[in-house]
Amino acid sequence: MHPLVRSVPAFVVRMRHPLADERGSAPAEFVMVSALLLALLLAVLQLGVALHVRNTVTDAASEGALRGARRRLRRRGR
């Protein structure tokens, strides 16, 4: 072996094979991305539930006001 090849620092050897250090990074990236996507999905679901509750409460208040107004009109008509 040539004497210069033996004196090459380890970081230069690693530079030749950049993918050698990235083994196992795909599962780690998958876990990080899926955690973000799961958080986004849960946020969208929570928003849907909140909007449903708001609409239900609004409809209930509207229905209550309508029934109260009708009842009041019936009492006046007697």
How would you describe this protein?
- The structure is a single chain.
- The chain is an all-alpha fold.
- The protein has one domain.
- Helix content is 82%, strand content 0%.
- It has three helices and no strands.
- It has helices at 3-6, 10-16, 25-77.
- The longest helix has 53 residues, at 25-77.
- The relative contact order is 0.05.
- The mean pLDDT is 84.
- Residues 24-65 form the TadE-like domain.
- Keywords: Membrane, Transmembrane, Transmembrane helix.
How would you summarize the topology of this molecule?
Layout: H1 3-6, H2 10-16, H3 25-77
C-alpha Rg (nearest Å): 34 Å
Could you tell me how far the N terminus lies from the C terminus, measured between alpha carbons in angstroms? 114 Å
* Integer tally of domains: 1
Label the structural class: mainly alpha
- Number of strand elements: 0
The number of distinct helices, counting runs of at least 4 residues, comes to: 3
The arrangement of helices and strands along the chain is HHH
**Mean pLDDT over the residues:** 84
The major sheet is characterized as:
none
**Helix fraction by DSSP (H/I, runs of at least 4):** over 70%
Protein name: TadE-like domain-containing protein
Domain TadE-like: 24-65
Keywords: Membrane, Transmembrane, Transmembrane helix
Transmembrane segments: 30-53
